[in-house]
Amino acid sequence: MQCIYRHVLKKIKTSKRTITTSVPEIRIYEVGPRDGLQNETKFVPTEVKVELIHKLASSGLKNIESASFVSPKWIKQMSDGVHVMTNIKKIPDVNYPVLVPNLKGYEIAKKCNVEEIAIFPAGSEAFSQKNLNCSVKEGLDRFRAVAEQAVKDGVRVRGYVSCVVGCPYEGPISPTAIAKVTEEVLSMGCYEVSLGDTIGVGTAGSVRRLMKEVLQVAKPENLALHFHDTYGQGLSNLLAGLEFGIKTVDSSVSGLGGCPYARGASGNLATEDLVYFLYGLGVNTNVDLVKLVEAGRYISNFLAKPTESKVNRALGDRFSNHLDIVKIASCKT
Ligand SMILES: CC(C)(COP(=O)([O-])OP(=O)([O-])OC[C@H]1O[C@@H](n2cnc3c(N)ncnc32)[C@H](O)[C@@H]1OP(=O)([O-])[O-])[C@@H](O)C(=O)NCCC(=O)NCCSC(=O)C[C@@](C)(O)CC(=O)[O-]
C-alpha cells in the first residue's frame, strides 16, 4: 500500500556516513492540560498542571495546549491560566498555545507572552449558545476580532470548529455547515482549523463524508483532526481522516477530556494510543512512549482515576525501554 503520510527528509548518522532518508511524520497537538482537565470537577492545583506540562514536553511532544483564558465563571478549572503560563519552564522548540474566547481573554493571554492562541467557534447553533452564550454568527464575529488583533501582534492563531459531526442538543450536523464555518475561520488568518468531534459520535463513514466536503474549501495541510473517543471510534476515525492527507492530530494524555457543555462526551483520543498507532504505521512521532506513559500515570494518579488509554493500561510495568514498545507496535519482534 502506498504511504499516505507526509514525509520529511531526515539526516541519519550511521557508523560510516550520514544518509538522507524520507520518514513519514504526523504532528501531534496535545490538549491534555486544557481540554483534558477543563471538565474535571476536582480543582487541579497550578503546580500539578505545570508538572504535567513539563512531563509532556520531556516526552518529546512539541505542541502542548496548556491553558485557557475563558471566563472563570464558566470554567473554574481553567481560572489559573496566568499562573500556569508564567510558571512553565519553556523548552525553546515547544509550542504552548492557549484557548481564548474573546478579546478580554486575548489581552490576558498576551500579557503572558503566548505565541499561539486557539479560537473555537461551533458548527452547531445550540452548542454555540451553551458554550459561548452567543449564536454561531456572533461567535464568528467575536473570534474574527480576536484573530485580527493576534495576527497584527504576530501571534499565531489556530481555530477549532466544534460539533463537526453531531451536537449534544441538535443531533447530526451537516458537513456543508461545517465546511462553511471552516472556510470562515481560515479567512480570519488561522494557520489551521481543527475539526472537533466534540461528543465523539463520528464513525469512519461520517468522517469521510465530512472530509470530502471540508476539502472543497481547505487544503489538508491547513486541517487537523480532534476526536473524542466516546464510542471507541477515535482511531478508526483518525485512519479515515489521515487517508485524506491530514498531517496534524489532536489528542490528550491518558485519554482525559470533555467539555462541560457537552454532557456524556468522554475524553479525547489518548495520546499514548495515538503514538502507539502511529509507530505501527511506521510514522515518526519523536515521542518517547515510556515518558508519555509516565506523564499519563502522573495525572491519572493525581485525579485518582484509571487511565482511559488502552496502551497505557496494556503496558503495565513491563516495559521501561521505548524501543521495545516501538518494536511491539511495529510487529518487529
Ligand atoms: C465566551 C464567554 C466569556 C461569554 O460569557 P458571557 O457570560 O456571555 O460573557 P460576559 O462578557 O457577559 O462576561 C461575564 C463575566 O465573565 C468575565 N469574562 C468574560 N470573558 C472573560 C475572559 N476571557 N477571562 C476572564 N473573565 C472573563 C466578564 O468580565 C464578566 O465578569 P463580571 O463582570 O460578571 O464580573 C463564556 O461563554 C466562556 O468563557 N465560554 C467558554 C466555555 C469553555 O471554555 N468551553 C470549553 C472549551 S470549548 C471545547 O472544549 C471544545 C474544543 C475546543 O475542545 C473542540 C472540541 O472538543 O470539539
UniProtKB/TrEMBL annotation:
Sample GO molecular function, one term: hydroxymethylglutaryl-CoA lyase activity
GO biological process, one term: ketone body biosynthetic process
InterPro entries: Aldolase_TIM, HMGL, PYR_CT
Pathway terms, separated by semicolons: Metabolic intermediate metabolism; (S)-3-hydroxy-3-methylglutaryl-CoA degradation; acetoacetate from (S)-3-hydroxy-3-methylglutaryl-CoA: step 1/1
The Pyruvate carboxyltransferase domain, residue ranges: 26-293
Record EC number: 4.1.3.4
Alphabetical UniProt keywords: Lyase, Metal-binding
Family: Belongs to the HMG-CoA lyase family.
Name of the protein in its database record: hydroxymethylglutaryl-CoA lyase
